[in-house]
Amino acid sequence: MKINKLNSIILLGFIAIIGILVAQLLWTKEAFNIEEKKFSQKAHIALIEVAKKLYQSTNRELPFENPVRKISNDYYIVNIDNDFDPAILEFYLKTEFKKINLTTDFEYAVYNCQSEEMIYGNYVSLDANTKKQSTVYFPKHKNLVYYFAIRFPNETNYLFSSLRFWFVLSLALIVILLIYVYSIYTLIQQKKYSELQRDFINNMTHEFKTPLSSILIASNYLIKQEPIIQNERLEKYTQSIIVQGNKLNQHIEKILNVAKWDHSPLELSKEKIAVLPILNDVIENIELKNQGIAIVIESDSKAVYIHADLFHFTNLVYNLIDNSIKYCAEKPSIIIRISTENNFIKLEFIDNGIGISNNEISYIYDKFYRISSNEVNGFGLGLYYVKKVCNLNHWKIKATNNPTQGITQTILIPSKS
């Protein structure tokens, strides 16, 4: 169900970006067509004004018929029906094009009645440093005697430059689409590797549990046999097999649980629970396993209640205390301090352990993370589980080094919960 939902979201996102990109390209094309029409209109207006001024010099009126004809996208002819000076024509062209803000290079040619051919006039560049000798052919037109032709060789570049914003936006959308596709590809690959890793862990741990169960069954049967009971050394070895087997079994269960949590989130069954009795029960169980430890509870209230899952909160407390015991080089001494602060119930687990460097302390709740100088056996899953339970309950947890020795792990629980 979740996979189908993820695939649907990916597909919808992909379609949305493609749709936006297509719309952007269509808008850009339409904007180009509009700019092309505007350019053509400006050219017509400017050329008509040039024709008027050429007529004014002869004291004749401009014919009613439009003298300007557009032959192609960048080529125009203007019928004057009267002789004119090419130098004056160029002056008028420059003046009118500048007046109407038509800022692009142009070239012109004039029809010569004597030779009956188009005589190339000049290439007019906006950049004084640019000189271009053109060999462009200006075709001759029938039924026209006194006329000139105008060509805009850089019209396409001029139109593209006026649409820079549109093209930059389209390019940005294309880049976003490529990043999205690459991100989705990476996500799918990571998901695939994650599933392979989880399947491998599940298969590996299950394969371990089968022979381990046989070893524990055989060891428990063996330790009850009379020859083993009578031989202190053999009994000690057998007991060591059982203890280490149970410890290995606990590690395997942790790995299986983490794989299960990654596949489906933890489900919390919240209820109102008293904190102090749970702490006392956990401490009693831990003291049975670890002789000689000192665990003290300090509370500013005799009755502290929170709304939480009993099972997971008990495991959370157990993992924090067990972690403090494991990472202690001397006799473990742990203080569990309970107080109320700014609408929060604060639980502090203060130990006298080996401590953690400031560079590594922020990573201790990461999955599989173990301190570089750590020589204690484990998989780095205990504190990861603690962090996960806190996140699901919307609690805050952090670890800080004590001024002298050990660390303090603090959990802030909203009092309203």
TrEMBL record:
One of its GO terms (cellular component) is plasma membrane. Keywords: Kinase, Membrane, Phosphoprotein, Transferase, Transmembrane, Transmembrane helix, Two-component regulatory system. It catalyses: ATP + protein L-histidine = ADP + protein N-phospho-L-histidine. SUPFAM superfamilies: ATPase domain of HSP90 chaperone/DNA topoisomerase II/histidine kinase, Homodimeric domain of signal transducing histidine kinase. It is an enzyme of class 2 (transferase). GO terms for biological process: cellular response to phosphate starvation. The chain crosses the membrane at residues 9-27, 165-188. The keyword Transmembrane helix applies. This is histidine kinase. It comes from Flavobacterium muglaense. The lineage of its organism: Bacteria, Pseudomonadati, Bacteroidota, Flavobacteriia, Flavobacteriales.
